[in-house]
Write a structure and sequence with these properties.
By secondary structure, the protein is mostly beta strands. Helices cover 9% and strands 40% of the residues.
């Protein structure tokens, strides 16, 4: 589902750089659900909740999500089959 609240992952490029320690929007990731390979920038970003959710632009499944907590960021990348040089 694409709606007016959907952005592309370029909108969270700063967060991605903080989380991974490098510029990540051009890094290619493979969706663990459908196998689509594309730069992280092409993922659909949902940023209006308590955290950020990045969904595959093909199948719509969650690829990466994170939230900032008092003890630091909590990240889940179980939807990534491969990312960059992983």
């Amino acid at each position: 589902m694409i709606d007016e609240l959907t952005l592309d992952a370029n909108a969270v490029a700063g967060d991605l750089e903080v989380l991974f320690g490098a510029e990540m929007t051009a890094v290619v990731a493979r969706c663990a659900h459908c196998g689509n390979e594309a730069p992280l920038a092409t993922l659909r970003a949902y940023v209006h909740g308590p955290g950020v959710v990045l969904r595959c632009s093909v199948c719509g499944q969650i690829v990466v999500c994170w939230a900032w907590t008092p003890s630091g960021p909590r990240i889940d990348r179980t939807g990534v089959a491969r990312m960059g040089a992983d």
